Amino acid sequence: xxxxxxxxxxxxxxxxxxxxxxxxxxxxxxxxxxxxxxxxxxxxxxxxxxxxxxxxxxxxxxxxxxxxxxxxxxxxxxxxxxxxxxxxxxxxxxxxxxxxxxxxxxxxxxxxxxxxxxxxxxxxxxxxxxxxxxxxxx
Length: 138
What we know:
Helix content: over 70%
């Protein structure tokens, strides 16, 4: 059990250290990790409805609403009601949202490049193998 506690603590420490090294938007708490994931998802997808985003985050649509409300207020995201059914809400990034997510992603890439250049090719392959296995189990 001690080994599992050490693994859990290590993962937690890594997450905190990554967040601390990222842009002010994340490290200063302006954008939460779930909000970052919404921005990242929309950056890849272009636009999505609230149900799609909720499914991606493994939460309910009402939980996404609060996260999106804050991102809209920060002018990082737009909401559109494209049909006569007001329950369907399409969200997309604003220009400012695209700039912020690009900045964060660039910082993440630089951070991981700096970290993984210290790993051998074999260590990087093993890391990918183990994290891939963990992801599948989740």
